[in-house]
Predict the structure.
Amino acid sequence: MTLAFLFPGQGAQRPGMLHNLPDTPATAAVLSQSRRICDELGLPAELDTPRALRDTVATQVSLVIAGVGCARGLVADAGLAPEVVAGHSVGAFAAAVIAGVLTLREALVAVHLRGESMRVACADGGWGMAAVTGLPVRTVQELAQRVTTPAEPLWVANINSATQTVLGGTVTALRAAHDAAGRAGATAFDRLDIAVASHGPVQKNTARTLRDHLATLPHRTPATGYITNTGGRSVATADAILDDLASSSAHPVRWYDGMRLMAERGIRCTIETSPGHTLTRLIGSVAPQITALSVDLDGPAIVAARAKRLSG
């Protein structure tokens, strides 16, 4: 195994991101098809405006469109062939499209349903997420256990590296966690630009809804390896991928485990699709022997040229 594509999740979005994707025929085709699908779903024509991106549904759909459009450009127009795909949170749906398990239409319909269900679960607006940097994972887990209460729950939502963990929960619980993390020696406690709390118990109904929906879809043999959110492990069947897509909204994202697995499996190069570069930075901290490239940071031409040299 040599080349992996990485797809970012919520928090990576930025205004105008769909208008700044690589200018390739394959990417343009994805954007054109996505506009038709979004119109059928009743979504606004401009999904990536600052106002639209305040809505988690528009944000999640936009991220999948960006990930698929960017990746298809790299495959069809630059001639790259990933052996492994991995998506962080909603980015996993873009990964599943590139793996051939979902069509673009199926992914956008499912993500629209996912976003709507997440929004309903957090409809009172009293929820959020925050990244804690500088503390071991176990310390953050213990901190969350001390802070959480039945009325103000808090949980570990993402394990991104040995020293970066994302918490999800109520705003009140996150405030308490901020103070506790500072006392424990955290170097940063950053609230994320996410309108819901995910990867925890508040999203159990979202996971059930997605499972029921995904069960109606065809089961296609994956064309690439796929690293799960929920276990950080490599799977090679449609059943396992669809199960991961359904269940991850209610369980922590074990990104750290997945990145270490990539290194163990001999991945030499990763490419993070637009938008963002957080996953690229994380690869550098977790597996410095892997050359981590970002389409946003490096540009599609340089990414394609370097990836071909490294994965050849």
Remarks:
- The radius of gyration is 18 Å.
- Residues 127-191 form a domain with the Alpha-Beta Plaits fold (CATH 3.30.70.250).
- The chain has a mean pLDDT of 95.
